[in-house]
Write a structure and sequence with these properties.
Number of helices: 5
Oligomer: single chain
Structural class: alpha+beta
Strand content: 15-25%
């Protein structure tokens, strides 16, 4: 799992929908609206102040229209929110197991890898030697999904979004 730091967490500007890491945003001077708690970059603050009479751009997302009240970004609060809402949830472990278990073999001790290889040789399965291909697909019945295939043969899938 990725370590959560201000350099790995990204936030999105409510004005132009651009992204920046939390560290970059703080360094450049992004602010957070005290009323609706959306983030906004300095350029969009100026644009909305000039063209929209200081209105907060969060109305784009369906939030009630209000005047922008920019304040500092509460770093500790954002980090706590990210930590409590990182994508583990119900399917986080399942996604990790289905799609990334083979890639984690590199982190296993040597003896565990040797034992696993010995078991695979007993199976005499040519397909197990080729690494699986993970790809995103759009299915008519389920929409956007992530699939795992080996030699074009379907292994498993998981709905995304």
């Amino acid at each position: 799992m990725a370590v959560i730091t201000t350099s790995t967490v990204s936030i999105r500007c409510a004005g132009h929908n651009g992204r920046a890491t939390l560290r970059e945003a703080i360094d450049v001077g992004w602010r957070m609206c005290r009323i609706c708690r959306t983030f906004i970059c300095p350029k969009c603050i100026q644009e909305f102040d000039l063209k929209m009479a200081g209105a907060c751009p969060s109305f784009i997302f369906g939030i009630d229209r209000h005047q922008l009240s920019p304040g500092p970004i509460p770093i500790e609060e954002v980090m706590l929110f990210v930590e409590s809402n990182k994508s583990e949830g119900i399917t986080g472990g399942l996604l990790e197991t289905l799609f990334f278990e083979d890639e984690q073999m590199g982190f296993m001790p040597f003896y565990a890898a040797v034992e696993k290889k010995a078991e695979e040789e007993d199976k005499d399965d040519e397909l197990s030697l080729e690494p699986p291909k993970i790809q995103e697909e759009i299915w008519s019945s389920f929409g956007f999904v992530m699939t795992k295939r080996r030699r074009g043969k379907f292994i498993t899938w998981e709905k995304i979004g």
